[in-house]
Amino acid sequence: MGNASREWQHALRVDRPALLDVQGFDSGGVYALSLARREKTPLVVSSVGETLGRGPRGVDRQPGLLKPFVQAIRQASALTAISHPVRDDLHLRFGAEGVLVIPDGVDPAIDVSFGWSDIPWRIDGRRVVFAAGAVDARSGFDLLVGAAARSTVAHRLVIGGDGSALAGLKEWSKRVGGAASIEWAGPLSARQIAAGMDHADVVVLPSKVNTDVSEIVSAWKIGTPLVASATAGAVSVIHHGMDGLLAPLGQSASLAECVGRLLIDHRLAEGLVAEGKRRVASLSWETAAERYREVFRVI
């Protein structure tokens, strides 16, 4: 601990930074707080969700971090958070005011070239709802099959992927009714997933646990209307009715309703696509860096 403190002091005196920015409060944040006080250097606290941690790394679970974290919030010249839920938690539980939300930059999960031969289904003129990923208990594909069974709008549901739940879901999908046909495309390459997202009429991210934000950005970048289960990851990024539709967790009826709306309401689908494409730029690393520079300039 003593060596680390000396290294911090040495770096501060050699580099002479105009401010200290703590990205995620851990033991480094404790050192930064101490040095900011000693050297009278402005402190910026950028919270990455450590107050929401449910595991041993959460600030609440580490008594040695909680007190200095609260002190750092009170002393900070500026406070930022990576999402609105993080900002709201800082305000409600720690009294933080004026927290600016600056999302991390997001690299799309899919950024590859593809061709017609990569489309993971035979085009026949019917509308296609597409989903892909690991087929397990957390993927939410059972909800998607249930949504297809409830659908009153004719379409093809194409699901790509492999996993422990695949055999059971395939067998179940043979017995469900509804206006949709259900097809299992098997394991897909990145090119095939990209082609599927591009040629589908609707992309669905039905996870029951969490949603990879990069998959959301991929759908926006490709330009296909999106439905996602309202996981923490999806809620932190998607603005319901503006750049995508959110279905309550665990509700196949709501998934069916959202998918049906996008298959029928072309104006809504086009509006979501247009706003999603605009959002891609706002979630780039360049945009995040510029927003941090704006914070630093006024300190």
From TrEMBL:
Carries keyword Repressor? no
GO terms assigned for molecular function: glycosyltransferase activity
EC annotation from Swiss-Prot or TrEMBL: 2.4.1.57
Protein's name in the database: GDP-mannose-dependent alpha-(1-6)-phosphatidylinositol monomannoside mannosyltransferase
* Recorded name of the encoding gene: pimB_2
Q: Which Pfam families match?
A: Glyco_trans_1_4
- On whether Glycosyltransferase is a keyword of this UniProt record, the answer is yes
UniProt keyword list: Glycosyltransferase, Transferase
Which PANTHER family has this protein been placed in?
D-INOSITOL 3-PHOSPHATE GLYCOSYLTRANSFERASE, GLYCOSYLTRANSFERASE
